[in-house]
């Protein structure tokens, strides 16, 4: 009997990562919570799980840096992406009002995404390791509220006191689906991600690389630099582009770029996932 496919996500239960995982897996798949993103990558590399979904970027707060750094270190591929609208609610013990609340707690990301709302309330803020841990705290402390979602309210029997409290209405988190392989075939609606580092401090070095994409009319959807951790002023560049690595213009351009850079890593070609994982 074949075992069910196991998909890891950033836990514990009740997080937006679980919500993302639930939105893409089939009924016969098992989702497994992990305490941190590095543990997820380690389990994938050891083949302890088949796939995983982790946050990589938020439209308000920017990139999830631990995910970017893990993509550099581990030999893991991106095989899909999912954009999840993030709506934050204020949850309290049933029957409590804002007058009863003295502290608002949550993970640092939801707190950062609701700064204006929190400032207006003038309450103390308590940063915790996850929204789920914050919700558990609220079940014990009647004067506390948690910034979370509907899943948390149901799991911990909390009441939604205020809805959609995020500072920006179009708050979206981009998740990537990870595996030991990427999407092997081109669909015509794909993206490809790479990491590069440049050769020395040559003036215009990055412009030279970017011009290769211009020549082949390749649209870049994201460019981000991260310290290489090999000395001051030394950077890695994360580049996302439209197209699959097997598309002729992408394949030609990546072959040229490999010869011009100090380090090149293909993170994978993939498409946006709108239904269950296959």
From TrEMBL:
Any one biological process term the GO annotation gives: L-phenylalanine biosynthetic process
Class in the EC hierarchy, top level: lyase
The UniProt record lists the keyword Oxidoreductase: no
EC number of this enzyme: 4.2.1.51
Entries under SUPFAM superfamilies matching the protein: ACT-like (SSF55021), Periplasmic binding protein-like II (SSF53850)
Keywords, alphabetical: Amino-acid biosynthesis, Aromatic amino acid biosynthesis, Lyase, Phenylalanine biosynthesis
Pathway: Amino-acid biosynthesis; L-phenylalanine biosynthesis; phenylpyruvate from prephenate: step 1/1
Gene Ontology CC annotation, any one: cytoplasm
UniProt catalytic activity: prephenate + H(+) = 3-phenylpyruvate + CO2 + H2O
PANTHER family: PREPHENATE DEHYDRATASE P PROTEIN, PREPHENATE DEHYDRATASE-RELATED
Protein name as catalogued: prephenate dehydratase
Organism of derivation: Methanosphaera stadtmanae
């Amino acid at each position: 009997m074949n075992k069910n496919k196991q998909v890891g996500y950033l836990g514990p239960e009740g997080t937006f990562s679980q919500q993302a995982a639930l939105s893409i897996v089939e009924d016969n798949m098992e989702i497994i919570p992990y305490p941190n993103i590095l543990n997820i990558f380690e389990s994938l590399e050891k083949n302890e799980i088949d796939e995983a979904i982790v946050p990589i970027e938020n439209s308000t707060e920017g990139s999830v840096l631990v995910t970017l750094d893990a993509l550099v270190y581990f030999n893991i591929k991106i095989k899909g992406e999912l954009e999840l609208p993030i709506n934050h609610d204020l949850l309290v013990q049933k029957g409590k009002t804002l007058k009863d609340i003295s502290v608002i707690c949550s993970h640092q990301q939801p707190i950062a995404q609701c700064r204006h709302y929190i400032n207006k309330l003038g309450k103390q803020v308590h940063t915790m390791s996850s929204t789920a841990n914050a919700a558990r705290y609220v079940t014990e402390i009647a004067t506390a509220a948690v910034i979370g979602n509907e899943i948390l309210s149901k799991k911990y029997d909390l009441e939604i006191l205020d809805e959609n409290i995020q500072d920006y209405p179009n708050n979206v988190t981009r998740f990537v689906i990870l595996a030991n392989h990427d999407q092997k075939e081109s669909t015509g609606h794909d993206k490809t991600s790479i990491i590069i580092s440049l050769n020395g401090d040559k003036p215009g070095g990055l412009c030279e690389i970017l011009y290769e994409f211009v020549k082949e009319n390749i649209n870049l959807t994201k460019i981000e630099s991260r310290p290489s951790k090999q000395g001051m002023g030394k950077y890695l560049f994360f580049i996302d582009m439209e197209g699959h690595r097997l598309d002729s213009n992408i394949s030609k351009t990546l072959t040229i770029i490999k010869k011009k850079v100090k380090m090149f890593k293909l993170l994978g070609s993939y498409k946006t996932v709108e239904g269950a994982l296959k």
